[in-house]
């Protein structure tokens, strides 16, 4: 009976193990699911909505094929739609039944109701993308994007978008009974082996020892000593029978090894039933209200890539003295100063170039949290300068005018402050402060004029108490420079015969032409960038006097004259960064953070 139960256990164990293995193999189904995307052959762009990418959980694999270069990029859905708003594109979305559908979206009409002609532009290298990919003929990229992100697929922006596009997901199929079946079958097989061993043991014990009777010996034959020895209990020597122990052990060991390997096959978590249920996420407090928060303009990785592009373009422009190339990455005061420098370098052989912009080393990224345009980002980058490995920090305000524009440097200066105020992390961003904001101790649009008054009048300025002037390196530098220039001018501005003054020099400051840019800090204050123009005026004191530019090649190169009876105006552009506290702050003084100052232009004073 034990043999019957052993065989039954073996058969049932085999069925259970085979069923468990089959669930993990032939009955599990495909491990991936692919959705082919059919697009129009006229549109140059295809936008795959985040809902399509997030149709199944897990990572996504994008495949696009076309003749030539295939391009793909991803970013926030709203940003990509804004970039495509003036052109026709294929919109790939998810229908109500979870099926993928494609429709051609025409350009959006402008404010006057006019529909623009579909624009064609190369999407490669745009600052708007969080990341981009390019490959010849076939592009395959593994992504893991949320439903708030979308993917743009194109070729060169002029030819039709790739027609062979698909998205593949890795399908997770759980087999909760595979593990119990395999392990249970292994245990049942061990029970069968045990029953089989018991059956063999009982069968051998029930037989007992059996011997045959010896035949009678003839009287005339000699006595066989071996038989006599056997009668006395002595066993004759001979080859012993082989014990079946080794074969039995091999028979027993084999099922155990098989069972162990099969049991490990079903040890993954998805091969067992989840009896505890899915854990419920616990809500945590956030810094901002997600319903009211807007997305930051850039990510840290995106900002690093943009800074490298800016530095590369400006470096090439400086090398070639190309103002048009510089204008692709500079605007406002930085661009105006570069143009003046290029003019001087073309006319003066030893004229130095302006400081290069860093290409890397970002330590602060403060993007504006804003879904529209224009957008502003504050950057602080470190780079080594000189042989002593000194670190030079550069502050920049970069702006993007619209979805199609590149980010440009609107303000740039050397960071002079020991410590920046606390700012929000890059993944949150900061709000832009309006120019006339009343929440700061001084509105941003009044800071340039107030500081210009402090430059001219020092402690006598009515705004002096509102600025932390004691540790202001820029103010000290301007004051010392003006004294030195005035002393040098006095030496040459006298008639040798009469000793009377033939000319005079004066200085004045005023708010520059550029609008201020301001981003909020965590302490209800703001980092504000402004532009101030310093004007140096030299005029003759009499009709017979003439101002000669004997030692001023810079003004001579910019004006194109060597002397003037009316005098000259020379303008210097100052880019200034301030920390402006909020109303009610314990430290209410405005503090200089960084600056740069370069010559902007010179002209002959009209009579």
UniProtKB/TrEMBL annotation:
Residues annotated as domain DUF8094: 295-603
Signal peptide: 1-24
Membrane-spanning intervals of the chain: 177-198, 250-272
Pfam families: DUF8094
Disordered: annotated span: 489-509
Basic and acidic residues biased stretches: 489-500
A GO molecular function held by the record: transferase activity
Annotated keywords: Membrane, Signal, Transferase, Transmembrane, Transmembrane helix
InterPro entries listed in its UniProt record: DUF8094
Keyword Lipid biosynthesis attached: no
Name the UniProt record assigns to this protein: Glycosyl transferase
């Amino acid at each position: 009976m034990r043999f019957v139960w052993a065989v039954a256990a073996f058969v049932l164990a085999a069925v259970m193990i085979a069923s468990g293995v089959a669930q993990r193999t032939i009955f599990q189904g495909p491990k991936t699911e692919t959705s082919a995307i059919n697009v129009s052959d006229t549109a140059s762009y295809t936008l795959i909505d985040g809902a399509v990418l997030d149709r199944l959980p897990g990572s996504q694999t994008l495949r696009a094929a076309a003749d030539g270069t295939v391009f793909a990029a991803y970013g926030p859905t709203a940003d990509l739609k804004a970039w495509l708003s003036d052109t026709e594109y294929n919109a790939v979305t998810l229908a109500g039944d979870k099926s993928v559908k494609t429709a051609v979206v025409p350009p959006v009409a402008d404010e006057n109701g006019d529909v623009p002609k579909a624009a064609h532009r190369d999407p490669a290298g745009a600052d708007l993308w969080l990341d981009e990919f390019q490959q010849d003929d076939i592009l395959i990229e593994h992504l893991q994007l949320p439903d708030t992100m979308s993917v743009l697929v194109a070729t060169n922006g002029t030819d039709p978008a790739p027609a062979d596009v698909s998205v593949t997901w890795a399908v997770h199929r759980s087999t909760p009974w595979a593990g119990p079946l395999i392990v249970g079958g292994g245990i049942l097989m061990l029970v069968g082996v045990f029953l089989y061993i018991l059956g063999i043991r009982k069968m051998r014990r029930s037989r007992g020892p059996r011997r045959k009777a010896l035949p009678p010996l003839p009287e005339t034959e000699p006595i066989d000593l071996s038989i006599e020895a056997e009668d006395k209990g002595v066993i004759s020597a001979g080859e012993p029978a082989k014990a079946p122990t080794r074969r039995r052990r091999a028979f027993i060991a084999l099922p155990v090894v098989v069972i162990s390997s099969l049991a490990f096959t079903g040890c993954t978590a998805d091969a067992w039933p989840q009896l505890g249920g899915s854990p419920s996420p616990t809500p945590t407090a956030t810094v901002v209200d997600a319903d009211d928060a807007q997305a930051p303009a850039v990510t840290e990785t995106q900002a690093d890539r943009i800074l490298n592009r800016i530095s590369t373009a400006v470096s090439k422009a400086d090398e070639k003295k190309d103002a048009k190339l510089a204008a692709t990455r500079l605007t406002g005061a930085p661009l105006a100063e570069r143009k003046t420098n290029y003019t001087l370098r073309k006319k003066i052989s030893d004229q130095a170039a302006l400081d290069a912009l860093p290409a890397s080393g970002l330590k602060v990224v403060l993007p504006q949290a804003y879904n529209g345009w224009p957008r502003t980002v504050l950057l602080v980058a470190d780079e080594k300068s000189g042989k002593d490995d000194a670190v030079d920090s550069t502050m920049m305000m970069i702006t993007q005018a619209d979805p199609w524009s590149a980010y440009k440097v609107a303000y740039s200066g050397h960071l002079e402050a020991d410590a920046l105020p606390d700012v929000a992390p890059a993944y949150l961003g900061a709000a832009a402060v309006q120019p006339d904001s009343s929440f700061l101790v001084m509105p941003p649009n009044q800071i340039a004029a107030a500081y210009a008054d402090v430059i001219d009048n020092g402690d006598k300025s009515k705004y002096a108490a509102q600025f932390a002037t004691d540790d202001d390196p820029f103010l000290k530098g301007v004051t010392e420079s003006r004294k030195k220039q005035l002393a040098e001018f006095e030496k040459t501005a006298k008639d040798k015969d009469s000793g009377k003054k033939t000319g005079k020099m004066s200085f004045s400051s005023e708010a520059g032409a550029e609008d201020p840019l301001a981003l909020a800090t965590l302490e209800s204050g703001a980092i504000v960038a402004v532009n101030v123009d310093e004007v140096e005026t030299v005029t003759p004191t009499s009709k017979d006097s003439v101002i000669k530019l004997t030692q001023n090649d810079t003004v001579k190169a910019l004006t194109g004259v060597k002397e003037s009876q009316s005098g000259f105006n020379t303008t210097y552009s100052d880019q200034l960064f301030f920390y402006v506290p909020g109303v009610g702050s314990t430290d209410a003084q405005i503090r200089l953070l960084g600056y740069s100052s370069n010559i902007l232009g010179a002209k002959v004073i009209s009579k």
